[in-house]
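In response to reviewer comment 3 from the previous cycle, which asked for concrete evidence that the modeling workflow produces usable outputs, we include below a single protein chain processed end to end. The sequence was submitted unchanged, and the resulting structure tokens are shown without manual editing.
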Amino acid sequence: MKTYRNNSVWSIVARITALLLIACSFSAQATAPRLTAKMFGDEKKADIVAYQSVSSETKSESELTQAIVTEAFNASEKTPIIDLLPSKKLATYALFNHDAAALIGSLQDLANQDKKQYSIVTFYLKSVDDEPVVIIFNNEHAKALRNDFVAGMQKIIKSGKYLQLIEKSRGKLPPEYLGRLKRLNPGWK
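The workflow returned the following structure tokens.
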């Protein structure tokens, strides 16, 4: 009978100890350092977001489109921050959430009901049959940025820098390329 009592006493002591440890754990505070964005320097908000695709062909086109956008803004003496995001969903969220003033993408990135809130500028044609690459500007927050981009695009087209960038990457373009690009942007000269 003594063994029975001994086991039950130890069982009760173990349960009480477990309950005390659980109760004490709720009052414990973590001592690990907290990481914040400020620890890595000032966080800069992107003016323009883009997204990358997986295939190598679209990676080279992504680099080309960023080069065109950068060159157009350089021609307007502006240097916006372009952030390349890993997915289309993140990039469109940044535009719709007003975290970015513009998005480099396609016409399919914008729902029909949202088109009134945004200005679309086509600046690159992959081929005759493909969806053009556009930059979508928020009408409320990016009018000046849009005007600078359009002015810069017209300057680099006129100077020949635009064709030089594309032909360096893709080779000789068909003669109707610039005409089609201008038709997709009716306000251009």
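The domain at 46-184 is CATH 3.40.190.10 (D-Maltodextrin-Binding Protein; domain 2). We consider this sufficient to address the reviewer's concern, and the full set will be provided in the supplementary archive.
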